[in-house]
Amino acid sequence: MSKLPHIGTTIFTVMSQMATECNAINLSQGFPNFPVDKQLTDIVARLATQNVHQYAPMSGYPPLLEKISNLTQQSYQRVVNPKEDILITAGATEGIFATIQALVNANEEVIILDPSYDCYEAPILLCNAKPIRISLNDDYTPNWEKINEVANEKTKLIITNNPHNPTGKTWTESDFIQLEKLADSFPNLIVLSDEVYEYITFEQPHISIHHRPKLWNRSITVSSFGKSFHITGWKIGYVIAPEHLMKEIKKVHQFLVFSVNSISQIAISEYLDIVDVYSLGNFYQQKRDFFRNLLKETKLQLLPCEGTYFQVASYAGISNEDDLTFTKRLVTEFGVAAIPISIFYANEKDAKCIRFCFAKDDSTLIEAAERLMKL
C-alpha cells in the first residue's frame, strides 16, 4: 500500500515534458536558461583537478559555513554560530524534508498556506502528521483570521514562504507582527520559513525571519544557492536554526544524504568572496519589467510581482476553461508552457490564473510574448 497514494508525477515534470514534446517555450519550471557566471564555472574547472572529491563534513564545508554566517550578519544583522546553527543541504527541498521529519511527530499538525509549493505536504504525511491547508486571501496575503482559527495545541509547525512561490507576493511588517502574536499564543509552535528567493525582491526590501529576534529560538530558515546563483541543478542550499533544533535536523540529514556534494560546496565558498548577492534583485527586476512590458500587448491581466522570478497572470478575459485545461492548450496550440495555479491548492481553487517563469534570456521572453499575443 502506498504511503502517498494521492501523489503522482508533479505538474512541473508534466508541463516540461509537454513543452519538449510540442517544441514549446518552457516558462513553466523555475529554472534559468542563461549561462552561469563564468567566474563560478572557472572556479569549478580549476577545482575539478584538485583533491576535493571525497566526503565533506556532515554539516558542511567549514569555510562555507563561516561565509554563510558572515553573509547572514551582513544581510540581516543576525549572528549565527557556523558550527552549530548552519547546515548545508542537498537543495532547499532536502532541508525542508529533513526539518519536518526531525521535528514533527505523529498526530501533530502543520499549517500550510495555499497556494503552496508541492514539497511541503509529503514529509508531513510521512510523519503520520496532519497538514492543515489554509488558503491565502485573494490578493495572496496571509489570512490571519483563518490561521488563528485553526492553530491549536497540536500545531507543531507553520510553514511560511516569503518571497512567495508561485505568486511573487512578499510579507509586510504587519504579517510578521501577526506571526509573532501567534507564536506567543502557542509556546510549542515552530516556524519553518522558506526564503529561497530572499535576494530576489524588487520595490520593497525583503523582510526575513532573520530580522525577528523574538522568533530566532523557534524558527528554521531555508535558503538556496541554486536560486541565488542560477545553479538549480547543483541542488545545494542551507538551513539556519538554533542549536537545539538543528541538533535534531542533523540527525535526519546524516542518514538522508550524510553530506552534500563536496566540489560544489568548495566552489560556492570561493565564489562568495567575489559575487555580489545584493545585485540579484536589480538583475531580476529588469527581467520582470521587460517581460511585463512585452505582455502588455496580450489579453492577459498581470498580477503584482514583488519578488521571485515568477509572474502570475489571469486569463479570465480570454477563456472560461479550468486552468489545467487552459495551460495544456497553451502548450499544444500556442507553444508556451506555464503552470496552473490551482495545483498549489489543496481544494484546487481555480481563479483562472497561471504562472510564468521569467528567468530566461531576452530572446526567449520575446518569442514567448509573440506567441502569447495570439491568444
Automatic annotation (TrEMBL):
Keyword check for Transferase: yes
The cellular component terms of Gene Ontology attached to this UniProt record, alphabetical and capped at eight, are: cytoplasm
- A UniProt-annotated Pfam family: Aminotran_1_2
Coiled-coil segments: none
SUPFAM superfamilies annotated for this entry? PLP-dependent transferases
What is the top EC class of this enzyme, as a single word? transferase
- Give cofactor(s), names only: pyridoxal 5'-phosphate
Give the enzyme's EC designation: 2.6.1.88
Q: Ranges for the Aminotransferase class I/classII large domain?
A: 25-372
The stretch of residues making up the signal peptide is: none
Please name the CDD domains in this protein's record: AAT_like
Q: To which protein family does this belong?
A: Belongs to the class-I pyridoxal-phosphate-dependent aminotransferase family.
Protein name as it appears in the record: Methionine aminotransferase
Q: Organism, per UniProt?
A: Flavobacterium sangjuense
State the organism's lineage: Bacteria, Pseudomonadati, Bacteroidota, Flavobacteriia, Flavobacteriales
